[in-house]
Amino acid sequence: MEQDNVFEKVILVGCQTTEEDDLRFQYSMEELESLTETAKGNVLMQVVQKRPKIHPATYIGKGKVEELQAMVDELEPDLIIFNDELSPSQNRNLSSGLNARIIDRTQLILDIFAQRARSKEGKLQVELAQLQYLLPRLGGQGVEMSRLGAGIGTRGPGETKLESDRRHIRRRIDDIKSQLSVIVQHRDRYRERRKKNKAFQIALVGYTNAGKSTLFNRLTEADSFEENQLFATLDPMTRKAILPSGFTALLTDTVGFIQDLPTTLIAAFRSTLEEVSEADLLLHVVDMSNEDYFSHQQTVNKLLEDLDVHQIPQITVYNKQDIAHRDFVPNAQNETAFISAFSEEDRRNLLLKIEQSIIEMMEPFHVLVPSDEGKLLAQLKNETILRELAFDEEKQVYVCRGFSLTDHQITGQLKRFSL
User: Fold this and answer.
1) What are phi and psi of 255, to 5 degrees?
2) What 3-state class would DSSP assign to 419?
3) In this predicted model, what pLDDT tens digit does every residue of 67-121 receive, in sequence order?
4) Contact 173, 181 (CB under 8 A)
């Protein structure tokens, strides 16, 4: 799609199968419209059809394709977007039956990702997903090329061109994979260093546009890209967050999830999502102003299960409580917090709740630290949760009581001064 401010005219097409309930299908089409607007598309109309199952050749029925062509003649859209991933043959058949450019939901999401990617890694991951999507769909173009010339001497070059395209794409895929593996190794080393330093890691997860970046920026005073758009964040960002006790944790903002996220994208962003698997605590941000919040919450929980991280302690943060949907009912099985990311008081209460969750993963200590152990005292303020720090004049020691992470090196040091 265009990346300037020219909006393309779009018709959306969806097919509802009998096993899909009305509400879920309606939300899915609304989400497709939001995605289209995010990608600078102007939706002229939606065409939907109910069928027992998706038509294997043309996605929608033959009659509906003819009806759609009549609309194309009348409205002259730049683009038709289908609400599911089209197979190579469906795409080919529809392209020959409709006089307009055709893309599917996956291509639309990939297009948005391409616009949003800022880091080298993000750009490479998007390109990889696009090429992996394109490769099996090159087949149809060879047929069209051979038909165009319709004679000796034209078929060969068409097929040869196709084969060279395929080879070029495969080479580029290999090249991107090797570049990404270098970046992943670099991130692994960085992660190992964080682990060695025993920094407590918190990851923000949630459906796209739930308000993760807004919350991230205000908890860490960072400058992560925030906007009321789908997939505003693609590249994970990690910053320090200081809790009310002075304890420092590392907070990571991650890519937003979405229902029916294309498998090529999940694969491409696996290294990014590994940031989630390394976390000690997850903050699952849910937009309580969105009428489809329950389905969004389920989508994220399902993806967390797929990533095998559902066992990590989690706080469900219901965000945008100032504009909560009238039918909103919380339904999390774990610890919850209700906030508006813009409210300072709400954020402070959330930090206190995070601190309480961290304490439950720590062990208590009660030590007397000599007054000449200045370095250790400074560490105690940043690397443990201190509940008491008092100076005993008579003994010339500091009485310290609080909580520390079991496997943190400071816990070993404190054993020397334990009561």
Assistant:
1) -60, 140
2) coil
3) 999 999 999 999 999 999 999 999 999 998 898 899 999 999 888 888 877 778 8
4) no
